[in-house]
Design a protein that fits this description.
Number of strands: 0
Helix content: over 70%
Largest sheet: none
Shape: globular
Distance between the termini: 38 Å
Strand content: under 5%
Structural class: mainly alpha
Radius of gyration: 17 Å
Order of helices and strands: HHHHHHHH
Length: 193
Amino acid sequence: MYWRKNLKDITVPISKHLDTQKSTTYKLVYTALLGLLAAILQSAGGFIPVIGMLISPLATFPIVIAILMAGLHGLLGYFVTLFLLLIIQPSELLIFGFTTGLLAVGLGIGFRYFMTRWKIIVFSALVLTVGICFLLYTIQFPILGPFLLEFQYVNIVFIYLFSFLYSWGWTELLVFKILPTAVAILEKNETSK
């Protein structure tokens, strides 16, 4: 039951808010602002030495919310973030582009289209695994430090298990904290009008 629970009651209010009520211009501006927030959070790792490394993974949330609220416009938030990181903090570009950002895209698409916890986690873990493997084995960028650098199937299994646990953690954080807060804020804004 836990794995198959439908998460529609959490994701539908967010996606309905922009999909049905707002213009294309509003969606573009909103996702651009979320992309800017993601770029600021991701670049914190380079600007604030120790604490920034803890802040940097939070760049996942703005992209997930952008994809949930605006669909394909939300993917533009991902590309805006990449472009801004190219200008602000180029050293974070590969890390965001193939790990944090891809996880956000996987989670956003998963929450928007799959609606069940196990499908969201498996899909986002697969997307993150592809990103990490691309960095490790194609570009030869040691994203995981000196570990798992040579291509072996066992290494890919370990990377997928790590990605699965990491995606599961972000999914639970989104389900229990972030998305209910976003829904409450949107409902409060709607009732105040």
